[in-house]
Amino acid sequence: MTQRERYILYLLVALLIFLPLIFTFNVFENRPTPEVRGVYDTINSLNPGDVMVLSMDFDPGSEPELYPMALAVLRHAFSKDIRVIGVGFFSPQGVGLGVSAFSTVGDEFGKVNGVDYVFLGYKPVLIAAIQAMNDNIKGLFQVDAWGRRVEELKLLQDVPKLRNNVKYLVVLAAGETVRPWVAFGSAKGGYPMGAGCTAVSFADYFSFYQSGQLNGLMGGLKAAAEYEVMVADDYLKNLSGILEKSNSPFTVEEIKELMVKEGAPKYILQALSKLPSDRKFNTAQEFSAAFFNANLGAASAGMNSQSFVHAILTVFIIMGNIAYFRSRKKKRAGGTSA
Amino acid sequence: MVFLKKQFPMIIAFSVGILMLIQFFIPSKASQAFYETMNLWIPVIGGFALLLGIDSVVGTHIKKVQKLSSGYGYSLVFLISFVAMSVSWIVWGGLENTTGPFSWMFFNMFVPMGATMFSILAFYIASAAYRSFRARTPDATVLLISAVIVMLGRVPIGTWLTSSLTNTKLWWLQFPEVSGWLLNVLNAAGFRGILLGVGLGIIATSVRIIFGVEKTYMGGME
Predict the structure, then answer these.
(1) Do B156 and A92 touch (CB under 8 A)?
(2) Does the CA dihedral A92-A96-A99-A100 come out positive or negative?
């Protein structure tokens, strides 16, 4: 492979990543798979006030794949009024991402830090830390990621340990943290568990999903996008009754007024604010499509890029093999003639 | 000194290893209390390991800069970044101060650089796919075909490419279906074997450490 060929190849990959991000379009449907639906359905089945754990075991290196997943899971949990305990056992560098995700989504849903959610941060030695979480959270963490004493946090007063208290655990892992959580967290603590991982680790954990040790498994950006689709769909369901009452054509502002009157949740009003308030819609379907697309996150935005890059990689592999067989044929022909 | 370096760590490893093993089979309050205490001690010891790690990495880079050895510029960048992050955390606070320099550097420098490092892989994989993913042998051909199917089956374009087969007798030939079968059957079977092997390996290594046969954790002494 010449230097020039390499540059052309890099340029093609770069263009196929950037262009679909700049010029967005909807061609490829992203259907939620049963593995991702496993996590979604479990969270859906929880009751308001139940407690789940979100272990954000990744650092900025895996942020593009796992951070959108964390946001989507948190949005889903908070929309169901589920309380969430957050930790991050992969590396100290991941704490900032946890703080950012919990603050962002917490504010979106008007949740109170310490009451509706906590993010405890990082502790070294994963297996021991997981086992300690099962029996005594306050023994392991003296302060949360914001430096507040854990005894003062209402959520941890209600939930002093994970065993017998939490209803679900979701681990978003960049490294080898799923296996310890399965063996020492979920199995010993007696709570069900789902996981999310980078696309390259998906195959590693699939056997845990197949055996039922994980009741859901999200692999890479695609799974995050699938989760975003399900959450956006959920948001849309909140609007269906309201849309029937509106007389078309209508503006976003008119829908908003109607929603306030009907007592729609705050996060739906916030979701609506992603559309320009003066935008006019002729039909409910037109509005639904725009509202749905506006509430998809970073993962869905990256799906077109990922699709094209995977396709071009396939083309490269085919081209490389054609070149290989041609050169082999030439060599053989050369050998015969000699 | 030899006792402290060699025998003493072995005595600790043996006694704690055996006690942790025994407590698992004793359902008493004392046993549970011991287990919980150990689980709180271990992360504390891990915290000291982090300090040792910091000491080691800073020491290595300082030496590189002092000797002006090859790539010392990178070491200099590391040391400046290390001091900048540490000082801003100590003086202005960490992530709890959302407008402080530590938060700013974390979210505007560290996070994008970390993500960039990982993203560069896309270019290397593209180049490697073109250069070396060849059907040289039957094994390599199977690997190549599986890789292409899984690669297309895991993105929406793969679903779209074979969507015309959805309601036909050949529905099972759709990329997501074939990719799912490869992951669910062949891959899961292979990985389960690997995991069982890893589990047995962990048990064997643990027994060797507890009984003092394996001593590499003390610095490579045999």
Answers:
(1) no
(2) negative
